[in-house]
Structures are given as C-alpha cells and as structure tokens.
Amino acid sequence: MLDTQLTSSLSYKLYRADEVRGNEQDAASKSGCEMFTLMERAGEAVFRQCQHLLPNTEVYLVLVGQGNNAGDGYVAACNARQAGKRVIVCAVEPERKLEGDAGRAQQNWLDTGGSIEAFDEEKLSSAGLVIDALLGTGINTYIRNEFAHIIDKVNEADVPVVSIDVPSGLDANSGQSMGRCIQADVTVTLVGIKPGLTTGAGKQSCGQLVFEDLGISKAFSAIAKPFASWLDIEQFKGMGPRDIHSHKGTYGRLLCIGGNKGTAGAIRLASEAALRAGAGMVRAYVHDKSIIQVSAGRPELMVTSEALEDALQWATCVVIGPGLGQDDWAQHAFEVAMKHCQSEQKPMVIDADALNLLSRQATAFTISSCILTPHAGEAARLLGVSVDDVETERFNYAKQCAERYHATCVLKGAGTIIDNESSVAVCRHGNPAMATAGSGDVLSGILGALLAQGLDTELASRYGVTLHARAGDDLAARDGQRGMLASDLFSAVRALMNQ
User: Looking at the structure, do residues 252 and 161 belong to the same domain, yes or no?
Assistant: First the structure.
C-alpha cells in the first residue's frame, strides 16, 4: 500500500513570508527565546554554510540592507571575523543607524572594531565569498536603483554568493524577480521554507536551498498555517507487494489516445511508461498511419485505429493528448473521448495537444477525476494569458487552471506544482536533464497507470509527479545531465516503485 500520510516535519511544508513574519515572534516566545536570539542563530547558521561551501576562503564581503535581514548579516560578519576571516561590510547607506534587533546587531559589529563602507566593485573583486543580506522577505515593489546596481554587479562577478532567507530582489511567495534578483549559490532560508524558492525562476535564483528552523520548529508548526506541501519521494512508501491471487485486470485497463500521423513517438512513450508503472493492460488508440510505429518492438501494447467508442467502453481510465495533433482526426477523437469520460465519470489525464483543444472550448468539460498536465505555454492558452504571466505567478495560475476546469492541475517545470483547488503541493525533485523531448509524455503515462491501479487523483498526481522527477534525478546522478532520453526513465521509475 502507498502511504498517504505526509510527514508533519517543517522541511516538508512551505509557508508564505507573511505567515512566517506573523508567527515567528510568538513561536520564539513559546520556545523560551528572544527574537535577537533567533537573529544570532540565523547569523551563525549562515556562517556555517559559508564554511561548508568554501572553508578556505579568507575574504568575506557582507552586503547589508536596512531590516532584520541586515541584522542577520551583521551577526554572520561577527562570526566570520571571530573565525579569523577578513570581513568587509558594505551598506547602501553606510551612515544609517538601524533600529531594533538589527540595530543591536549592527552596534555589536561596530563594537568589535568593524566598519561599514559604501559598496564598490574593487571590494567585490577582492572577495572570495559574498553574503547577501540586502533585502529580505518584506519587499513587495520593484527595488530601488541603488540596490539594483549592487545586485547587477554581484551577478556579473564570478564570486560565490550565500543569500540569507531569500536572494535579494526575489518575491518570497511567488518566486518573481522584483526588477533585479541575486543569483545565489546557496540560500539559507529561516524558520519556514518560502514557496517562491521552490518553483520556476525562484528555484534557479536560490541555488542550493538550505533550511534552518532556528530551534523553534515545534512551536512554529503548532501555530502557523502552511501554504503548500513540499513533496519528496521519502514521503511515499511505494505500491507494496501485489496479492498472490491478483491478475492483469486487477491493475486497470488504460486507454491512451494520441499518435496522429507523424507523431507516433509521443503516444508510444506514454503507453509504455504506463506499462512500466504497473498498469495491468494498456491499449493505444492511434491514427492508422501510426499503428506500426507504436506497436513495433512492444508486443505487450494493444494498438488500434478503429472503434474508439468500444475502446473507451473497455477502459477504466484514459490518457489523451500525446502526439494527438489538432486536425479533424484529433478533434473527433478528443470530442468522443471527453463526452464519454464526462458521462461515465471515468478518470482522465489530459496532456499536450488535448490541452490545446480543451482551451478552444467555449464551455469546459467537467470530469470528476481529471488531471491536466500543462507546461507554461499550455497553461497560458488554457487561461488566455501570456507565458510570462504564468512563469511570473506560477502558484496563482496553477490555482486558476484547477478552478476553471475543476480538475487537478499539474503545472510542469522547475518545481512542478500540483493544485486541486483545495490543496497545493510542489515537487522538490527534478533537474534540467529532464528538459528533453517526450519527458512529459512519460509523466502522462505514469499518472494514467496510477489512476488505473485505483489511486485517487490527489495521490496519483502527487506520487506520479514525484516518481517521475526523482527518476530523472537518479539517472542524472548516475550518468550526467546531458543526453538523457525520455525512455531512460522507464527503468528508474520501475525501480523506485518497487523499493
């Protein structure tokens, strides 16, 4: 059996920045510490990560702003100086006295004999490592020019960067760059993991993401409301052993519809992926010009170009879209399949060209158990917005897609988002090796296979996305990121499901 209980650990939950800010003081108090103690712990944690990243670096450049993020930076600077490092602290306004805990940290730095200087490129070029404490999670408008200038110079320089909480200039909730954004090598995020660090451009900007709960996790998790789950393969136990008296019909009858003339490969990948992910029987309905290409070398697949209505009656669930095309043949197959699955309430996975056909419908079909798997371009067409809109606000548009079609939306990309109207999850696995033709078709087949085996749409979508992405990680770790084929994922997925 698959374990549907996700761990309550903070490392598997995502919290909006305002939720962290609104609850960290109460959590600190309940944990018996002051907010300045959290600042000290944050600065110490940042310095530890700097030591881990580059233990022999002797010159640190610490860039500070004007809020609590700057206070964390001053504490990190003190820790580095105590460890014998040469530390240069630069601020946008070097003469400005900070207030509150940040002011206390600033004064401690000055009391140790430290100075605060204006930023210039000579200081940057002399540094072996940059600590980014310019801007924290509170920004909600485009950043000022003086910050943008520093960020540009840091990004142009070949110097490793460790960001505190979020890379400066990044919206912690959406992952959107607020005009400019630090491209960090490591981001040490504090108290709660922010969703903007886990998907799209935000995932790229933060580099390696390190989480530090600062010793208040128990109290914080008791009072703060998570925004989303962060999915890891370790949260799932796998499918477990099969019953001795089971047979192929026990594990579902999946129909994969697609494979127009000239695009047979996509439906072949989806269909074979479904077999490898445990579906009992898989039938492919394809254009008559594609039968040989789809069936060749895989006799376990049943392939047909006739009697779509009969094939739909046979099936317990359907995948539609890989290689479907958008011509008259595709339109007919799409309409027949959608009407059947709507009337019979059969689970569906809608991918690729089927999403493009769906976007043209004046009234959306409503199917009780439906998974949509758009990339940003397909999501943009489904919602009538631009691709840039989707990539800038991935969480927002995944939610809109789920709500418009009353379906589970799997918004693919770096940090794939799964939204089913009532809950949100983000996959922490995946890597650029998976940006290869056919990878999405394999995902559709995996999702269809899990539905065929009786998983509900929430569990099938979360487990299927996680399986697919972790399989890609395993292959990239073994063979490297270049040259991965979508079909390489079959064996890795099968191995993960049987662990």
Answer: no
